[in-house]
Amino acid sequence: MYLQELQLHDFRNYDDVDVQFGRGVNVLLGENAQGKTNLLEAIYVLALTRSHRTHNDHDLINWEAKTAQVRGKIVKVTGTTPIELDFSARGKKAKINHLEQARLSQYVGQFNVILFAPEDLSLVKGAPAIRRRFVDMEFGQMSSRYLYNLAQYRDVLKQRNRYLRLLQHHRAKDLVYLGVLSDQLAAYGAEVVFQRLDMLKKLEKWAQKLHFEISQEREQLSFKYDTKIPVDQLTNTETIYAALQKLYADNQDKEIERGTTLFGAHRDDLQFFVNGKNVQTFGSQGQQRTTALSVKLAEIDLMKEETGEYPVLLLDDVLSELDDARQTHLLTAIQDKVQTFLTTTSLSGIARKLVHDPTIFNIDGGQLTPEK
Ligand SMILES: Nc1ncnc2c1ncn2[C@@H]1O[C@H](COP(=O)(O)OP(=O)(O)OP(=O)(O)O)[C@@H](O)[C@H]1O
């Protein structure tokens, strides 16, 4: 798939933009603080209805305005679809083919993007929350069922944590009600965990192949889903559900004492191993970067496998963070296959040589000008 056209109105530092993009590599060139990342963010938001940089949608609206719009035309093998998001103080509206969608989860998945920013290089080394976010954002785009279960899980988790805090402060005492919430959480949690395991197995297969190539056939990458659920019970949703129920029952006193849910999908993590050794603890910085790059590139292949279409790739200032060999791998993997948006202050070195026929835009103070 590719983004043929983008229109912005009062989005961040852009007043009005109406632009057609190339199907290959689009280079967004400009000095610092001119709006390069804002433009990538607009594309990311158009796909996922939320930003990767802020939790507050209001930040997306131009400081001088009260509403913002992001519209795009997405081209797939099945045809062209206009999609649209409107932001205002009352919230956001999502439209597909000009029809408003009752739920945002119905909207997400029309347009698939993968964002690769310098922070992603810390996918391996960074906090567990980074890896969970990665898993949820990517798998959510590929499966509306995953997105639905995750949203329900988060809702119940919020309720359960609120109730645990009441119990902790002796402002409630209904343990039967806690049991009901635990059951619901275990049920949605089992769906989330099982789908994660399934998707991770597929992602691992692609990442292994890429990592092997990038490391010049020296390194075997593998994943481990890190959870308190016993390994032998990770076989299906029923066994995972039973294991979670048991964790909640066995740790009821501890959870009440702490006033929060200590077990479940929101606490799980993902670990990466190279030649059997944990990369987070034993890997060199180079191995950690190769792992992050392989995992990111693997997502492109997995999305194609799951949805039948390549996603759009957003590279936020990431080339400058990679050495020549890794840049070469990245650029040859996407070349002529994946529509790519790449922000940079200057296109130089290996990238200038490798990128075939880029479409270049100059970005200056929220103005976008195609380079002749
Ligand atoms: N809601 C908003 N309304 C108007 N301007 C905004 C808004 N949010 C951010 N900006 C402005 O957008 C600019 C930042 O743009 P952006 O983050 O896209 O920079 P960039 O071109 O990617 O630069 P760098 O190379 O430093 O990352 C800043 O000048 C900031 O003040």
UniProtKB/TrEMBL annotation:
Gene3D superfamilies: P-loop containing nucleotide triphosphate hydrolases (3.40.50.300), RecF/RecN/SMC, N-terminal domain (1.20.1050.90). The RecF protein is involved in DNA metabolism; it is required for DNA replication and normal SOS inducibility. RecF binds preferentially to single-stranded, linear DNA. It also seems to bind ATP. Keywords: ATP-binding, Cytoplasm, DNA damage, DNA repair, DNA replication, DNA-binding, Nucleotide-binding, SOS response. Belongs to the RecF family. GO terms for cellular component: cytoplasm. Residues 2-344 form the RecF/RecN/SMC N-terminal domain. GO terms for molecular function: ATP binding; single-stranded DNA binding. Pfam families: SMC_N. It is found in: Cytoplasm. HAMAP family: RecF (MF_00365). This is DNA replication and repair protein RecF. One of its GO terms (biological process) is DNA synthesis involved in DNA repair. ATP binds at G30, E31, N32, A33, Q34, G35, K36, T37. Its main location: cytoplasm.
